[in-house]
């Protein structure tokens, strides 16, 4: 049977949809393997680029350490200033939560009373 016209279209779209996950999986597998092999062979194939990457990584590590040290100092100052405000906010949120729960129970009780009277 020759699949032309609408029959070919239906067979092609259903077949494509059925095969697409397999094709994507194979593409990911092949791509992942190629990247892994390239990374493993990079020191031999591209020694100049590897040296540049290593120096950039060292510089990044140094700058990251400096930034983290500054962040720790800033965080300590922030914690000292923010803690009282955060405690007050937590108390306020709990109070509002309790009010909402009380209102919900009251409203449901009022609705129950109205329905029972009818």
Order of helices and strands: HH
Overall residue-averaged pLDDT value:
78
Which geometry do the CA atoms define?
Answer: flat
N- to C-terminal separation?
71 Å
Q: What portion of residues is helical?
A: over 70%
Structural class, judged by helices and strands? mainly alpha
Number of discrete helical segments:
2
| Strands, total number | 0
Strand-residue fraction?
Answer: under 5%
Q: List low-confidence stretches.
A: none
Short characterization:
This protein is mainly alpha-helical and 118 residues long. It has 2 helices and no strands. It starts with a helix and ends with a helix.
Features:
118 residues; 0% strand
Describe the structure.
It is a single chain. With 118 residues, the chain is mainly alpha-helical. It has a domain at 1-45. Helices cover 95% and strands 0% of the residues. The protein has two helices and no strands. It has helices at residues 5-45, 47-117. The protein is flat, with a radius of gyration of 32 Å. The chain starts with a helix and ends with a helix. The model has no long low-confidence stretch (mean pLDDT 78).
Layout of helices and strands:
Layout: H1 5-45, H2 47-117
């Amino acid at each position: 049977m020759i699949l032309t016209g609408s029959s070919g279209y239906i067979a092609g779209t259903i077949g494509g949809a059925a095969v697409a996950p397999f094709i994507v999986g194979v593409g990911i597998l092949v791509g992942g393997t190629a990247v892994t092999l390239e990374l493993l062979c990079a020191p031999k194939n591209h020694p100049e680029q590897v040296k540049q990457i290593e120096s950039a990584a060292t510089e990044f590590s140094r700058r990251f350490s400096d930034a983290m040290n500054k962040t720790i100092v800033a965080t300590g100052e922030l914690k000292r200033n923010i803690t009282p405000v955060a405690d007050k906010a937590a108390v306020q949120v709990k109070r509002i939560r309790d009010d909402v729960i009380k209102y919900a129970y009251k409203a449901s009780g009022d609705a129950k009373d109205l329905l029972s009277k009818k």
